[in-house]
Amino acid sequence: MTRQLIEFENGAPPDPRQLRNALGRFSTGVTVITTRSPEGKLEGMTANSFSAVSLDPPLILWSIRNEAPSIKAFLDSRVFSINILTQEQSNLSHHFATPKEDKFGDLEFTEGHGGCPLLKDTLAHFECDLEQTVSAGDHQIMIGRVVRASYEDASSPLLFSGGRYAIAAPLPNIDATADLATVWDGLG
Ligand SMILES: Cc1cc2nc3c(=O)[nH]c(=O)nc-3n(C[C@H](O)[C@H](O)[C@H](O)COP(=O)(O)O)c2cc1C
Asked: Please, what are the domains in the chain?
């Protein structure tokens, strides 16, 4: 096992791919975040930067690249929906990570809060008002206030780990639920 060391020079890694590789050691779920622009155009993009922030009030965040074609729609509409993907939906992740004029043409969805698309058969939805944006380097952090949510008990999440899609498997012979409850009743 060789550990890769990245020495930053003048605030930047010598090769940006090394920083990406290091960040990719942190596994995440995969979401598709959708909106409806004030002109009525539907937009959506794959994002793994989603995170829970606060239970009371109910806040979540994600971040969007300043250069993303859909950023204007997200900033102007001030509403969005987070769609958490299941392990059967890597094709949807790929679809929404690929720039295209209309990403919704062939898809099944309903319209939720503010007319934002809610994709079919996802693991969970969070329908949000845009509460605050924070400019951070080459991204905008979007903080959303959840106004409605739903989730599925039976399905399993799609994961993104080390630059690849993955599936979750419980650790055999370990049930940490009881122990965790004694130390932390915060965001699950
Ligand atoms: C697994 C995965 C996670 C991604 N996460 C983000 C993210 O958090 N923020 C972001 O700006 N782009 C992210 N992207 C890239 C966008 O999905 C991609 O740039 C997309 O084309 C943006 O949509 P748009 O072209 O309609 O603006 C991710 C892509 C993949 C495959």
From this structure: 28-183 (2.30.110.10)
